[in-house]
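User: For my dataset I need records formatted as: sequence, then structure tokens, nothing else. Please produce one.
Assistant:
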Amino acid sequence: MINCADGLLTLYTPSSNMPWNLQRSIHLHRRINFGASAQRIKDALNQNPIDIINDFLDNASNLPLAPEPEWSEWSISDYSSDNQIRNQQIAAQYIEWTTGWMNDIKNNGLRDQMSWFWHNHFVTRLEDYICPSWMYQYHRLLQKYALGNFKEFVREMGITPAMLVFLNGIQNTRFNPNENYARELYELFTLGVDNGYTQEDIINTARALSGWSGIDVNDLCGEVEFINTFWDPGEKTIFGRTGNWGYDDVINILFEERAVQISEYIAGKLYRHFINPKGHEDIIKQLGTVFRDSNFEIKDLLNAIFTSEHFFDEANIGTVIPGHIEYFITFVKEMGFADNSELNSFILYSADDFDQRMFNPIDVAGWPGNRDWINSSTLGYRWEGITNIMGYYYALNNNQIQELVSFAKTLADGRNNDEVYITQQIVNFLLPKGFQHQAEYEDALMVFKSEIPENYFEDGTWNLDWEFAPAQIFYLINHIAHSPEFQLK
């Protein structure tokens, strides 16, 4: 696969060749914010895009963490002794927290766009460690370091209970070393597969990371403590440096000796997530330099990504297939639908049925993403999901969806009785690059006009305040959603 984008990493300045237009505003808001209402996206055209990006970054950095739940430090002894009731309590806490994070993802913009990204990078699985208190502590780190310092993020993540249990850190002692976390620390979290480490580095790293085994087996879900007698104090050689290294030494040596590999690996993952899954070797190397020069500050790396000419290059628009949760959230936000707990539950638990369960990625490598989200079963699910969401709001509002009318009027630019223009604008908003052929626009127009007699359009009687306009918009959006291009963001 070749990335044809020519844009540079230089600061984006709107020009006749690369204007700040509706297409690029949609692109920015979808990539940085899981979308936004049509009105907000249009209003952004009156602002400097770099100012918008800086506001997103600053707001994300300053946002408070999700409020601590009352069960944040619960151990098993805090639950009912009855197994069935205890399981119900744990399930209720999971639902509470996933629903809350769902709202954060919808409403908190870049901060929780990034916490969601890191959830699929520093993977743990609730199914493996069970404890809601450990889930909360893990999630708190995702939010705390979403745009923070990557080195400190790695340091804290390795000793959070969810990770210690999931990747067998609690079983790693001087008497019985376990290499699982050491291997994934390099292979998945910092360096990439076979990139700058050896099996000997993994063995010695595991020895240095030993000792985090202090868990009360009679009262699970409590703190995990470091036990010095379980730590291996012997000499270890890691990346050519020898000493009686411990946990902090591993992190320091890793970031000192493998800074280039770390910076380019993380820059590459963020590039493929936010810009183009095909990657771009030269740009990724430049981004790696930015990351190293900032001492691994994630916010600085994101700033370089989003403010670059390369990010706004035409060839990078409409290149990403989002996961199910992101896909539906973006649609809901762009339609202007109000927050609704039943809708949130639909998105969360329907995605669960198609292998995207919050706090439970499919394996330690996370969801593969992009084209892997689409297959013969998930495509039908995503089509039907759009119809179900609109149908839900249709029924909720007595067979009207005023949000859809507002959406169409925002795009109509005052031409509320111009059915051709309205259809074209809706298509071009929902599809990153519109339809490829005029015949497809004509088909969409036929769907939009539906059963309305032609003379109502010809004599100017019809407009977006027409009684059946919400249904017309419903049918048109449903038609567009069934096109292959709708899967791209």
